[in-house]
Amino acid sequence: MTCRDLMTPNPACSMPRDTVVTAAMLMKNNDVGSVPVILDRDSMRVVGMVTDRDIAMRVVADQRDYYNTHVEDVMSKDVVTCSADDDYDEVIEAMKQHQIRRIPVVDSNKRLCGIIAVADVAREAPEEEEVGDVVHRVSEPGPSQQNGESSSVARYTTAGLLIAGGLGVGAGLIYLLDPRWARRAKESMGDAVESLKETAGISQDE
């Protein structure tokens, strides 16, 4: 089974000069957490990947003006892609090694032709392999995660930055990305602030 069999063709994608608000709306409308970034509609060449975490960390947490911040300012340029002819196991290995759950698929001319999500891989799992096993394989720490850093560390780092920067102007964008996440983040921030106060010896009345 190859990437051609697994991929979703003609995926939603962004361009470098799009605003991060446009990218966030694209993610919201397509119910995804990341989109590939292409140079232009003619070449369709993949030049980056932008995620909801990129927007949260590099725009909201830094309190940047997201209507004047462009995708090229926050996107990851070191993009992991796969060829349409790569096979099933290669996709799983790439996801595991780089701890990613969406991989753009490119043709022989490096043009974007599809995207593969972990759900696509799990759905097409061989009969002898349980879906849970596939997801577990993808979620296992790869070489870059063996030093003790994990996705949970990234989540706590995000929360810490949001506490440090405050929701402020970014609250609307977080809500746009995921209202439930925004509510949970707000509650977590309240708990974290109280914990920090206790640690610092600050009373409730101060």
Can you summarize this structure?
The chain has 206 residues and is α+β, with helices and mostly antiparallel strands. Helix content is 48%, strand content 13%.
Structure, described:
The chain is 48% helix and 13% strand. With 206 residues, the protein is an alpha+beta fold. The protein has a single domain (3-149), classed as Roll (CBS-domain), CATH 3.10.580. A hairpin with a 5-residue loop joins strand 5 and strand 6. Helix 9 packs across helix 10 (179-200). The longest helix has 22 residues, at 179-200. The protein is globular, with a radius of gyration of 19 Å. The N and C termini lie far apart (63 Å).
Topology:
Layout: H1 3-6, E1 8-9, H2 20-30, E2 34-38, E3 46-51, H3 52-60, H4 71-74, E4 82-83, H5 88-98, E5 102-106, E6 112-117, H6 118-123, H7 131-139, H8 151-165, H9 171-177, H10 179-200
Parallel strand pairs: 4-5
Antiparallel strand pairs: 1-6, 2-3, 5-6
